[in-house]
UniProtKB/TrEMBL annotation:
Organism encoding this protein: Kibdelosporangium phytohabitans
Domain of life, per lineage: Bacteria
Pfam family, one: Ribonuc_L-PSP
Gene3D superfamilies, per the entry: RutC-like
Family: Belongs to the RutC family.
Protein name, per record: Enamine deaminase RidA
PANTHER family the UniProt entry points to: 2-IMINOBUTANOATE/2-IMINOPROPANOATE DEAMINASE RIDA (PTHR11803), PROTEIN HMF1-RELATED (PTHR11803:SF58)
GO molecular function, one term: deaminase activity
Amino acid sequence: MGNITRINPPELHKTPGYHHITVAETGRTAYLAGQCPLDKEGNVVEGGLHAQIEAVAANALTALAAVGAKPSDVVRTHIYVVSTDGVSLGDAWAKLNESVIAEAFTTASTLLGVAQLGFSGQLIEVDLTAALP
């Protein structure tokens, strides 16, 4: 696998776990579609945000494995949470960093509060880019 370097320049603010810059010296990249909290039948997982985060993380892990990648191969994340509250966004960030794909969020990451996502009842979606081995 190509080398992945994560950088936090000392001139920029400290981060809660992600890096400002991720450099991937690799030849192949996988762009995963936004991973949604859907079960295998396509139903939105019930049980609130934490249950949906667990489903998104499990789905993302499966998608990464399908291309021979691991969470440590992720070089960019976008996280969309239905919320206008900073505390809720921080809670989602913390829960993702405890999930089976936690290592993916040490890379260049963006966390966004949004008004609505694609499925009725959907509270979170995670978009990942990985440098392939």
